[in-house]
Design brief:
With about 150 residues, the protein is α+β, with helices and mostly antiparallel strands. It contains five helices and six strands, in the order αβααββββαβα. It has a single domain, classed as Cathepsin B, Chain A (Alpha-Beta Complex), CATH 3.90.70. Helix 2 crosses helix 3.
C-alpha cells in the first residue's frame, strides 16, 4: 500500500544510527522561550543542547509529519528549513526560521501528527552518487543542496 507506520519508520531510521522520533506531545512546538542561562552557559552547552534547553526548534535536524497515510519531512539544510512534501506542485518550499513553530502548530491543529527527528547518523543530504552510491536515482525527485539554498 505504500503506507508505513511510525514503528516501521523508527526501525528504518535506526539502521542509520541513533535516531529517535519524538511525538509532538513530548516536546514544545511553541516559540522559543527566554528561559535558560546566560550566553556563556549556552555556548558551553553547544548549539543543539542550548536549542533543546530553550525550545529552539530551528536548531533541530528535522521533523516527520503524517496524516491519512501520507508522510512528509521538514528538514534543515544549512541554516534554512524546507517543506519536502511530495504533494507540493513546485517542489520543496522554504519555511522561514521564524515561521517554523507556527507552521508546526498549524499542522497539529489540522490533525497532522508531528515527530521531532533527533539523533546522530542521518544520511547525508544530496544525490545518491554523491553520498556513496546509496539509493536509487530513478525514484522520486532529487535536489542538490545548492539548488535548494539558491532557491532553484
Amino acid at each position: 500500500s505504500g503506507f508505513f507506520s511510525v514503528d516501521v519508520l523508527r526501525l528504518a531510521l535506526a539502521r542509520f544510527g541513533a535516531i529517535e522520533l519524538i511525538p509532538s506531545q513530548k516536546f514544545s512546538i511553541s516559540q522559543p522561550s527566554s528561559r535558560g542561562g546566560g550566553e556563556g552557559e549556552r555556548e558551553a552547552l553547544g548549539a543543539r543542547k542550548a536549542a533543546e534547553a530553550a525550545g529552539d526548534l530551528t536548531q533541530e535536524l528535522g521533523f516527520l509529519v503524517n496524516r491519512a497515510e501520507h508522510w512528509f519531512a521538514l528538514r534543515r539544510v544549512g541554516r534554512r528549513w524546507w517543506n519536502l512534501n511530495s504533494t507540493l506542485e513546485r517542489g520543496p518550499e522554504e519555511v522561514g526560521r521564524f515561521y517554523l513553530s507556527a507552521f508546526l502548530e498549524a499542522l497539529v491543529a489540522e490533525g497532522y501528527s508531528v515527530f521531532l527527528v533527533r539523533g546522530e547518523g542521518l544520511p547525508e543530504r544530496g544525490y545518491p552518487e554523491e553520498v556513496g552510491g546509496h539509493g536509487r536515482r530513478d525514484i522520486g525527485t532529487w535536489y542538490r543542496v545548492s539548488d535548494l539554498v539558491a532557491g532553484g
